[in-house]
Amino acid sequence: MVSIVLRTLSNQSRCSLLRRGEVCRRRVTAPLVSPSLLHAAAAPRATMSTPATPTADHSEPGVFSTIADFRRARRSLPHDASVGFVPTMGALHEGHLDLFRRARRECDIVVGSVFVNPAQFAPHEDLDRYPRQLEQDLELLGGEGLVDLVFAPTREEMYSPDHRIYVDPLGFDDLPEGVARPGFFRGVATVVTKLLNVVQPDLAFFGQKDALQCVLVKRLVEDLNMPVTVVVSETTREADGLAMSSRNAYMSAEERAAAPAVYLSLRAAADARQREADAGRNASREELVAAAEEVISAQPLITSVDYLSVGSPATMEELEEIGQAGAVVSVAVRLGSVRLIDNVVLPPLAR
Ligand SMILES: Nc1ncnc2c1ncn2[C@@H]1O[C@H](COP(=O)(O)OP(=O)(O)OP(=O)(O)O)[C@@H](O)[C@H]1O
Ligand SMILES: CC(C)(CO)[C@@H](O)C(=O)[O-]
Ligand code: BAL
């Protein structure tokens, strides 16, 4: 009963927010919100009328480029509405949309962010060419009414010229994805901390595709006592198994045709583990890596392998043997000019 009341309230508040969205659609300079309309969203429950059925209004999220404006809108939400947050770097695809859909199912209000975080890019990486297409992203989210508020700050808004404090997650640069991208997890931990401080969600949604990032964010909120629940959602794939990623757009047709080998290599590792489990044995790291390597080495367009890792699901530290607790097999390869990462979760065994 309680949850029905909440859902009712949130539908109403969502519609109020979205009606206000009509006014500010597509403009990303402050101020974007009519405070009076947001105030209406915060009206006490008893004054709320029957919830409006979802309408075309749902296609109009409020978009904010400054922290101050976003906070104003956030403060005006009903205090007991649950807020779900999906942080992204934009260039949205079905993988992102699945995160938003899950947030929509599980929360009263959905907030998204679009920010290409310079702090997580090494100097030689693709910060400048990373796709930026906010208009298109808003169309996609709006089309299904997946989001209520979007925080899309500028670089200067997030990092003033005098920005000095970074969040340094110990040990992450020693794990495979950290070794391949030194400093990356410091950049992610810093921006996720900042985004969570701005958005103040109850739940935050992350994709399993970035497996070590999920482990990092869970540690972050635990170690820094942040009042947010981290939800990890499964990887969304193309029909041929390729994990969806904004960077897939960099691939040539030839590279794209070769790319499913990455997932197939992980499936080969998963099959090897299953064979051992069926025979009542623990699989070894070596067996799994060999099975995956066989598939990768058969694909000539894969020019190098950053890592093939068999890690503990909780910490991503390397395992020698895959016991009952399962494992995460992850891989990062270079395919032409593109770097692809992917992983599969080998579930715990019921014995
Ligand atoms: N295929 C996918 N399935 C599920 N979640 C995904 C998928 N791709 C990205 N995500 C998640 O979406 C969130 C935002 O990711 P991001 O904007 O970096 O997209 P991306 O496609 O991972 O981009 P790139 O790989 O090019 O960095 C992250 O939590 C990420 O794990
Ligand atoms: C979590 C994140 C939005 C932080 O910039 C980014 O690393 C991503 O998109 O996965
Ligand atoms: N999806 C993780 C963000 C990055 O690769 O920079």
Automatic annotation (TrEMBL):
Pathway: Cofactor biosynthesis; (R)-pantothenate biosynthesis; (R)-pantothenate from (R)-pantoate and beta-alanine: step 1/1. GO terms for biological process: pantothenate biosynthetic process. The keyword Ligase applies. It catalyses: (R)-pantoate + beta-alanine + ATP = (R)-pantothenate + AMP + diphosphate + H(+). Pfam families: Pantoate_ligase (PF02569). Keywords: ATP-binding, Ligase, Nucleotide-binding, Pantothenate biosynthesis. InterPro entries: Cyt_trans-like (IPR004821), Pantoate_ligase (IPR003721), Pantoate_ligase_C (IPR042176), Rossmann-like_a/b/a_fold (IPR014729). This is Pantoate--beta-alanine ligase. One of its GO terms (molecular function) is pantoate-beta-alanine ligase activity. Belongs to the pantothenate synthetase family. NCBIfam families: cyt_tran_rel, panC. Its EC number is 6.3.2.1.
